[in-house]
UniProtKB/TrEMBL annotation:
InterPro entries: Cupin_1, RmlC-like_jellyroll, RmlC_Cupin_sf, UCP019307_cupin, YjiB-like. Residues 77-127 form the Cupin type-1 domain. It comes from the Eukaryota. It comes from Daedalea quercina L-15889. PANTHER family: BLR7373 PROTEIN, CUPIN TYPE-2 DOMAIN-CONTAINING PROTEIN. This is Cupin domain-containing protein.
Amino acid sequence: MGPVKLTLKITPLSVLRTSTHHIPAHGHIPNTSLAPHPLLIYHSAFAREPLPNPSTIEGHLRRIGAVHPQWRHTMYNQSHFHSTSHELLVVFRGAARLLFGGDGNPGAVTAEARMGDAMLVPAGVAHRLLEDLQEGSAFEMIGSYPVGKNWDMCHGDGRAAEDVQGIRERIRGQGWFDKDPIYGDEGPALRI
C-alpha cells in the first residue's frame, strides 16, 4: 500500500462567499485608515469535508506564491497588529470568535471563524481571540505573510517602545498583492 494522498478542496470562486470590512482608526491603532484595502474574510474557502490538512493548505499557499506560511497556532488574546506586513490567516481546526479593530472601538468587527475560513488582514488592523468556541478541538490557524516580508508586533497602546509615526509610515509603504493568496491570478484580494 502506497502513501495516502491528501486532497484539498477549494471552494470555486463562483460560489465563494466573502465579506469586507473597513475599520476606523482607534487610539494608536490605524486599522484600515491608512490603506485602501479592507479586512477580507473568505468564508469556507477550504472545504470542511474532508478535514483540511494544514500541510496540504501550506503546500497550496506556497504553490500560489503570494504568501509564505510561517506558523501554526491559535490567535493571541491581546489585540495586536503588524506594521511591516499584511497577514493571511487560515483556520484548520476548531472555531472561534475574533475581534478586529481593537478593544473599545465602536467600529470594530466581531467575526466567527471556522475550519476552512481565511482572513486577509491588512497591515495596521488589530486582531485578537475573544473566545474559542469548540471544546475538545482547540482553535488553530496557519499564519502566512507576503513572500519576503517579516512581521513585527505592535499593540497600539501608546507604549514608549512604539514609534507611532514610524508605524504609520511602514503601513503606508506596504504594497498590495499581485496574486490572490488563495486563488492566484483571480480572486477577491485583486478586486478590493
